[in-house]
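Sanity check

After download, print the first record. It should look like this:
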Amino acid sequence: MPPRPKKSSGPRRSNRSGPGPRRPGKENDEKAVEVEGEISAVLAGTMFRVRMISGHEVLAHISGKMRKRFIRLVVGDKVKMEMSPYDVSKARIVYRLG
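Expected structure tokens:
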């Protein structure tokens, strides 16, 4: 029995409405604001309470690359964070300064 020819399904259609990437990527990270702070409390589920230099406290989670490399964070560590300009109460820790 000969192999069946592949059917051409025509142009692919997606459920997306409008232009833009499917997932957030590098182009969306340009909006992130980088700030430094000090860990004031370690919470459950790799969440941290971080006090910034201005005295403002934010809830921060550890980035995926830091999880992958098993970077440990303790109270008193200085960290670099990325914050969204839309929600200044949350951040992502991207680097441990010491």
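If your output differs, re-run the checksum step. Summary of this record's structure: Strands lie at 33-43, 47-52, 57-62, 78-83, 90-96.
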